[in-house]
Design a protein that fits this description.
Distance between the termini of chain A: 57 Å
Strand order of the largest sheet of chain B: 2-5-1-6
Strand content of chain B: 25-35%
Number of strands of chain A: 2
Strand order of the largest sheet of chain A: 1-2
Shape of chain B: flat
Largest interface: A-B, 9 and 10 residues
Oligomer: heterodimer
Amino acid sequence: MVAPLEQAFRDQWGRVLATLIGFLGDFDLAEEAAQEAFAIAARRWPVDGTPANPGAWLIATGRNRAIDRIRRDRTLAAKTRRLQAPEAAEVEMDDTTIFPDERLELLFTCCHPALATDAQVALTLRALGGLTTAEIARAFLVPEPTMAQRLVRAKRKIAAAGIPFRVPPAHLLPERLDAVLAIVYLIFNEGYAGRGDLAAEAIRLGRALAELMPDEPEVQGLLALMLLLDARREARFRGDDLVLLDDQDHALWDAVQIEDGRSVLDRALALHGHGPYVVQAAIASLHADRPRDWPQIAVLYGELSRQTGSPVVELNRAVAVAEVEGPSAGLAIVDRIDLGDYRYLHSTRGEMLRRLGRTDEARSSYVRALELVHDDAERRLLERKLAELDGPAPEAG
Amino acid sequence: MLLIHQGTTPTPNSPEDWARLSQDEQNAVYGAYQKINENPGVTAGLGLAPPETATTVRVQDGRTLTTDGPFVETKEALGGYLIFEADDLDAAIELAASIPAASMGGAIEVRPVVEW
């Protein structure tokens, strides 16, 4: 298969699957139909040329194949209650038919709270991202059969428990949308830790969501946040070593993506967005400026802290306050935070104590942080920080 | 089927706990159940006597073994159930959330009934 064709397939998968689930009322049947349609396309398009409307071609082909199967197999027909009405089955569809976009319905289904979080993540990547089971398993460092089982169980739960295929009604929408945004951001954060392809997937999902829900400010906010954070991906590592924001080579930042992220942020602000994702995106945007507007960053962290009550946000606020008012003020905030086993609390304390010249206390904090770290790149960074302090490092206890 | 686990919810089955609720709170519980039973999709089930009255039965090597008490931890044990003909899971979740046990120290298990 030619690489551009494969990319076109990836782009179409979610849309085709969603529409087929809408028609057939059954996830597995729709998935098989979609796979059949894509397989036929892979044989025919290189020969016949790509159709003018590839999505519609795939949907029509998949649907027709599914109907043929149902006609031949009566047990299958019993499963797909939707097609019991004979008129529905008779309507001919081809690649000129306008199909409704049901990706939103599919996304809300995959992120339904009745499913376990890791099932929501896997299903979203499979159904909307078009990733193969093997690709998802690799991304989460889980054996392929385990991931395959996870997907099978999730689809079974959707069917058996009666999870509806729809965009939730208004009274459920706010909490359900929060869940969807959380899953997309979770996928992004998995990618942010180093598995770059997941970050790109999350951004693709974010773009689709922003296109499908253009008036939701937090949706725009999340997309802006991901674009702005991801724009720094080339600068975050030097070989295998982590590079802190202050030390990053700005030439390695993706300037086009930063602009893109900022215009999405502007859209969010024009929609009067002021929720947590919008605020985080605004902070990320400010971090891309030189010189940095630390007072404004501190104010925004304050707002985020107020909205979320998150001690991690308070920690970030402490860092910004330290830049504006000095390390004593920052340390005062850090010391009020209850996050005993959070490695970044101790590394941040270490940094502030270092700036205050309280070297021995700084050393203890870095040592504590090192006890809590579980990532090689982070470990090496902390060891470097320790080594940079005056005087020899203490004997390991 | 909505399986009602009372957990630490005060119920008339345990008079001292029930007496700690105000008259208004007790009336609210009765009112909630009345509303649920008036829902056309609901088939009222049975309320069960407290878990301490249960006997658990197993058969091993042809011998019937009985133990005093419920199969699970007493505080996890079933308190009652009802059947709800729901359009979808969201509708069942909404009904489950209105059952007093859900907000007063217990939990509701929502499980589909197998149709043969």
